[in-house]
Amino acid sequence: MKQQTIQLRVRYDECDPMGFVHHSNYLRYFEIGRTEFLRSAGGRYRDVEEAGLFVVVARVDCRYKSPARYDDQIELTTRIVNVTAAKIVHEYEIKRGDQVLVQATVTLAVIDRQGRLQRVPESLIQ
């Protein structure tokens, strides 16, 4: 199982009036994790898009266990857990120290400019 861990700092504008990270921002963190994971392997989403393909989120299963707060240093681990001809499945874990804050599974699909499902390109599988 391939994985990568990166550090993020919670910014003020990512929080709700209670000072907790708004739930929608975790999806942004997952996107950052996916992008940096691909970049660390020498790939870029820009190259995939220039080839006329787009990676889209098809499903999200997210479990919020405890909130992150403004200025927290958090650790995001991104794992590829399954790749088929039609989808890529990532798992995410966000921690503050040893405490697990969020766990999620995101299923991605690849489509063309007309929105038709495509095979996952070899460049994303590598």
Automatic annotation (TrEMBL):
Keyword Hydrolase: yes
Molecular function terms, GO-annotated: fatty acyl-CoA hydrolase activity
Pfam families, sorted: 4HBT_2
Gene3D superfamilies: Hotdog Thioesterase
EC number assigned by the record: 3.1.2.-
Keywords: Hydrolase
Protein origin, superkingdom: Bacteria
Entries under SUPFAM superfamilies matching the protein: Thioesterase/thiol ester dehydrase-isomerase (SSF54637)
InterPro entries: 4-hydroxybenzoyl-CoA_TE (IPR050563), HotDog_dom_sf (IPR029069), YbgC/YbaW (IPR006684)
Protein family according to the UniProt entry: Belongs to the 4-hydroxybenzoyl-CoA thioesterase family.
Protein name, per record: Acyl-CoA thioester hydrolase YbgC
Gene: ybgC_2
